[in-house]
Amino acid sequence: MKDKKPKNVFREGAISHEFIGNSIYKHQSKTSIGAHNIFLGQVRADDVDGKTVSAIEYTAYEDMANQKFHDIREATFEKFDLTCMHIYHSLGTVKAGEICLFVFVSAPHRKVVFEALEYVVEEIKANVPVFGKEIFEDESHQWKVNN
Amino acid sequence: MKDKKPKNVFREGAISHEFIGNSIYKHQSKTSIGAHNIFLGQVRADDVDGKTVSAIEYTAYEDMANQKFHDIREATFEKFDLTCMHIYHSLGTVKAGEICLFVFVSAPHRKVVFEALEYVVEEIKANVPVFGKEIFEDESHQWKVNN
Amino acid sequence: MEITIKYFGQLVETTNTTEELITIEKGQISSLLNLLLNKHKGLKQKDFQIAQNQEIVSVDTELSGAEIALLPPFSGG
Amino acid sequence: MEITIKYFGQLVETTNTTEELITIEKGQISSLLNLLLNKHKGLKQKDFQIAQNQEIVSVDTELSGAEIALLPPFSGG
């Protein structure tokens, strides 16, 4: 599958609730699906030494990241019996309270969607070269690290 | 907490994608949240002996069901460090491809939302007196049983 | 005492009713159950749980006079 | 050979560049790494992985001439 060109997972800016709602709506024609599971990453207004995060600015090694997203996708379909799967990640500025990651898995029955979704999210956090710069209200910043 | 009156979890008919999108949008002001996890139950157009399910008609022992939803909610907040949690279930007719169950949990960090969501969904399936009548295209029916 | 009996899901089809009032002596759920199985023969072939005052109870629970519901297998979600 | 080096995240601040061309003899990643650490002293204090041709590699991997990227800890999602 390596020769298939990876899709672009990245979206400029926050992922809107309308986009997510529409994505759900599009699955109504897939009537073999019985269970959807959705993960949303939202930017937290963390307090760090008395300063508050107002936004995260995302950059990525885009070609490698899209290839990794593609590899995660292939591996997930190998491991789990899913009907479909979608991943979207923000680039650029996403304000506190906005959505920066949208992972959507669907299957005929529920058990597999729980396992698959957690697997995908953990793989993304560990293996995709995306970098978040936490911007404080005073315009200073620090670099986010996943735990 | 037993004396607090349970909220009504039931909605007449399918749960729309706009409702789900709006529910996501409302959480943008809760900037301590870093992770949302959403489960959606969708009515499957199952084939049974050559006939296809076209809809499920849901009924419930409503008072007991709302009390059970309330108990599940309390137990979930006891067990998991969640910021918020919402459950909606359809009553009446939900067509194949439409959403009949919407469970939404949110927390500062991701680990807990995966565990909490699966717990809530399994508790609902096992303990809430809701009854689904699968209607076939020829208007005959059979009673759904959860597995 | 007089007890309200509620039927749900496929049991509505079995008994042809959603609710009825039953007059019965004090005793256990089992004596009510016997009365209902006699009245609605179709119930004998059905799988169900019994709730008293909205809590699932076993057949040796004492009748309290509160509402009784016959609940077929749950299939929410 | 000539190799394109890309920097990401906080390493852009450390090196003040997103991309540069380095000319180097054949050899292992480690020899390139030494050269870069000498050129950009700030890198010594930084935690990063190295990708060659978009795959994470160890320092004893042979340089292939393909694009190299220095990647600080990932923080997607």
Give an account of the 3D structure:
Chains A, B: Its EC number is 2.8.1.12. The complex is a heterotetramer, with 2 copies of chain A (147 residues) and 2 copies of chain C (77 residues). The mean pLDDT of chain A is 95. Chain A has one domain (10-20, 32-143): Aldehyde Oxidoreductase, domain 3 (Alpha-Beta Complex). Chain A has helices spanning 17-25, 62-79, 110-127, and strands spanning 10-12, 35-42, 47-48, 51-60, 84-95, 99-107, 130-136, 141-143. In chain A, strand 5 and strand 6 form a beta hairpin. Helix content of chain A is 31%, strand content 37%. Chain A has 3 helices and 8 strands. Chain A is globular. Helix content of chain C is 22%, strand content 29%. A 5-stranded mixed β-sheet of chain C has the order 2-1-5-3-4. Chain C has one domain (2-71): Ubiquitin-like (UB roll) (Roll). Chain C is globular. With 77 residues, chain C is an alpha+beta fold. The model of chain C has no long low-confidence stretch (mean pLDDT 97). Chains in contact: A-B, A-D, B-C. Chain A binds chain B through residues 17-18, 20-22, 24-25, 27-45, 96-99, 106, 108, 110, 113-114, 117-118, 121, and chain B through 17-18, 20-22, 24-25, 27-45, 96-99, 106, 108, 110, 113-114, 117-118, 121.
